[in-house]
Amino acid sequence: MADVAERETIRATQILLLLAKEGPLNKYHIWKGVAKHELGTEPTILTTIKRLEYVRCIEVRRIEKNPRGPKPSKYYDLTLRGLTELVARLDRLKLKPPDVNSLHRHLAEKYRDLIPDVFAIWPEMVEAGIEDLAQKRLRLFSIRFIREEQRMYGKPERLPPVMPPPPALTKINAWFFLSPDPFSVFADDQSDTRWLNAIGNSPTLRETFMKACCDSLRWSLRDFKSRIDVMVDVPWEKDSQLEAVRQKCLDLITSVELLAQLEPPRDYTNEQTSEPSTSS
Question: Residue 14, Cβ neighbours under 10 Å: how many?
């Protein structure tokens, strides 16, 4: 039974990979693309496609006239859930490192709108020499997305007709992605140091991180202030100390707004220093 479940998982992952590389595709081309891997008969593969659509891993992107029959042909591609499922399961396909690298670069370009904060800076992470670490982080974020969705909605077979993404994971933001080791991704301090040094030495990554920090802090402070505002307006709560906290919060919001407007620190690592000229 375990072998059957594992085979179904690999078959579904292979379908997601095919769509990531070549989608949108219709069911006929998905079947042809997966059948060469000997992962099941045509009815089995079509059943897996149907299940992936049911659990919102794939969706119809366009409908065209079918030259082989009266029914229109539906063309499918990955959703955000399908993308995270693919990233989380890539190790099952046993791809070679060069293939894994090229696949992630392709995903970052093709599905930039699904995870814009992270995929927009993927080329900079490649250039900074931390592509392998970024891949580990993306996998951990994908697993977190899936678990959070399961926590909210239960098993995939019980998904509701309308299923918005989990509120905390509507988008994977740059601040949390670039922050020091949020999920203990790295097994050693050396990898964590390499990650932080690469961000610090890249003007683009450093600026992105600083801006994302300000955005996240601004959101948190405004959320906190809104809660304090409710407490201040309650008749039984006239505590001057609470009003002082509210004012401090307003001051902090103002400070963050000013911080966000500052120019990022200048990068001197690639500049040559020269001796000051002396006038005779």
Answer: 23
